[in-house]
TrEMBL record:
Name of the protein in question: Aldehyde dehydrogenase
Keyword Ribosomal protein carried by entry: no
Lineage: Eukaryota, Metazoa, Ecdysozoa, Arthropoda, Hexapoda
Gene Ontology MF: a single term: aldehyde dehydrogenase (NAD+) activity
Pfam families, sorted: Aldedh (PF00171)
Keyword entries, A-Z: Coiled coil, Membrane, NAD, Oxidoreductase, Transmembrane, Transmembrane helix
Gene Ontology CC annotation, any one: cytoplasm
Domain Aldehyde dehydrogenase, chain residue ranges per copy: 3-427
Length: 498
């Protein structure tokens, strides 16, 4: 096992040297990471293929292009993001500097998961670099080929003192977590998320936990079903269902269920042909343990579509299950595979009741042409994200925060939200020592009196901020009055000297 104490200490020394505070240094590191993505795109795609038998098109969309766009977005905006903010001031602070500075936390730990082993690790790493931190990078050991790529390649492109890569599984991670970090960003299961939270708590380290759970998908009777089926199955089957925001299960009426199944059979044939196993467009289950776990879940309810599997390839056919019960295993734990149970409900009201009786999901999907139904679902449920008539795509909008709530996680990232996650907002008040300011504020000092209290009350009273719209008018009027007074004085001076 590597000496984690030394690794973290080296990061601390590097952070203390101040080099990551230099925005140009951060930009250079990010540009170099972008170069790594560009120069080694094929190796990344090959590693994903070796780990998950991921089709190239999927890897391009959800990993390599995603990563490149993420860094470009940061590079285009970083100079604006790092600027201190100047919030509104009240009367009492009129003469002061009131600013919020964007401070890096220091040495942060980023722990990635195996299902999108590059994106889920390197997007938060880039955000942490942008914010000026040193980062200990821990890939998931389960996606071995991607972990090897990161361990070998990242040190060739990033500063080795500031951004070390560490490898290992639960034992090593448990050891690593004994170190004191200034921030921990974790992606993975809710079970391990609790372990990470507990370890962070020992040092009162703030955390972001990007966790999982069961994301429901409600289909309303008003839907255009063919499109809905395609979007739901695509969201379910990309990466063979091993996606944290995959629609976990469907909620719909019995009538919609029948139509959904008929459409799904046609769509699957269109996408993967008669022999799905021989299609190059469906990934495989990551390992034997998960394969066995999924076979166990397949025992719930009745198979309506699919149901075949092959252990030698860790292949599981896209499978739709019906007649599942609320307490069946498949309706209890996150599926994380190509199995789609349908749980029948009468209407949107029942769907809301069902969703609200469970843990808060990472995302809720609704398919409907009726905007009232969509609004009902959105306003009466709680989830990390919400998407109507689409699956997964909300994750690619870099101006939207991505994250869970309750048992699906805490914190958010992507785009500016990633930068802010790794930034401490330092509140700064700057005053001078001018006698006028001191005189105005002297009412705060003992001996206290009613007169001082009244004066302070007037100064501190909350007032509605003056609308910015009129500020320019006010300034113009003030300037006019000022110039008039000056001009009058000047003319009077001239007259007197005559
Ligand atoms: P995983 O097994 O790769 O674990 C994630 C990380 O935790 C790894 O780096 C691993 O080394 C570490 N780890 C595992 N056990 C540990 C332990 N006992 N102590 C300390 N560290 C430990 O991934 P996983 O947990 O199987 O990932 C799948 C889960 O992640 C699913 O629940 C999925 O929904 C969730 N997920 C969430 C997101 C999100 O963005 N919210 C994204 C992807 C996956």
């Amino acid at each position: 096992m590597a000496n984690f104490e030394d690794i973290v200490q080296r990061c601390r020394t590097a952070f203390a040297s101040g080099k990551t505070k230099d925005v140009n240094f951060r930009r250079k590191q990010l540009e170099s990471l972008l170069k790594m993505y560009e120069e080694h795109e094929n190796e990344m795609i090959n590693a994903l293929d070796a780990d998950l038998r991921r089709p190239k098109q999927e890897s391009l969309v959800v990993e390599t292009e995603f990563l490149k766009n993420d860094i470009k977005h940061i590079l285009y905006n970083l100079n604006d993001w790092v600027k201190p903010e100047t919030p509104e001031k009240s009367l009492v602070n009129l003469l002061d500097d009131v600013q919020i500075f964007n401070d890096p936390y220091g040495v942060v730990l980023v722990i990635g998961a195996w299902n999108y082993p590059l994106q889920l690790l390197l997007v938060p790493v880039a955000a942490a670099i942008a914010a000026g931190n040193c980062v200990v990078i821990k890939p998931s050991e389960i996606s071995t080929n991607c972990a090897k790529f990161v361990t070998e390649m990242v040190p060739k492109y990033l500063d080795n003192d500031c951004y070390p890569v560490v490898s290992g599984g639960p034992t090593e991670t448990a050891e690593l977590l004994k170190q004191r970090f200034d921030y921990i960003f974790y992606t993975g299961s809710t079970r391990v998320g609790k372990i990470i939270h507990a370890a962070a708590n020992k040092h009162l380290t703030p955390v972001t936990l990007e966790l999982g759970g069961k994301s429901p998908c409600y289909i309303d009777k008003s839907v255009e079903l063919r499109t809905a089926v395609k979007r739901i199955l695509w969201g379910k089957l990309i990466n063979c269902g091993q996606t944290c925001i995959a629609p976990d299960y469907v909620l719909c009426s019995k009538e919609i269920q029948e139509k959904f199944i008929a459409e799904a059979k046609e769509v699957l044939k269109e996408w993967y042909g008669e022999d799905i196993k021989s299609s190059p467009d469906l990934s495989r289950i990551i390992n034997h343990n998960n394969f066995q776990r999924l076979l166990g879940l397949m025992k719930s309810g009745k198979v309506a579509v699919g149901g075949n599997y092959d252990a030698s390839e860790r292949f599981i056919e896209p499978t739709i299950l019906i007649d599942v019960k609320e307490d069946d295993a498949i309706m209890q734990e996150e599926i994380f595979g190509p199995l789609l149970p349908i749980f029948t409900v009468e209407n949107a009201y029942d769907a809301i009741k069902f969703i609200n009786s469970r843990e808060k999901p990472l995302v809720i999907y609704v398919f409907s042409k009726n905007s009232k139904v969509i609004k009902e679902l959105r306003e009466n449920t709680t989830s990390g994200g919400f998407s109507s008539n689409e699956t997964l795509m909300h994750c690619g909008v870099d101006t939207l925060p991505f994250g869970g709530v309750g048992s699906s996680g805490m914190g958010r990232y992507h785009g500016k939200y990633g930068f802010e996650t790794f930034t401490h907002k330092k509140s700064c008040l700057g005053k001078d020592l001018h006698p006028l300011g001191e005189l105005l504020a002297s009412g705060r000092y003992p001996p206290y009196s009613d007169r001082k209290s009244t004066l302070l009350g007037i100064l501190l009273r909350k007032r509605r901020p003056f609308p910015k719209l009129y500020l320019s008018h006010l300034l113009a009027v003030g300037l006019g009055i000022g110039l008039t007074v000056l001009f009058t004085h000047y003319m009077q001076g001239k007259l007197f000297t005559r």
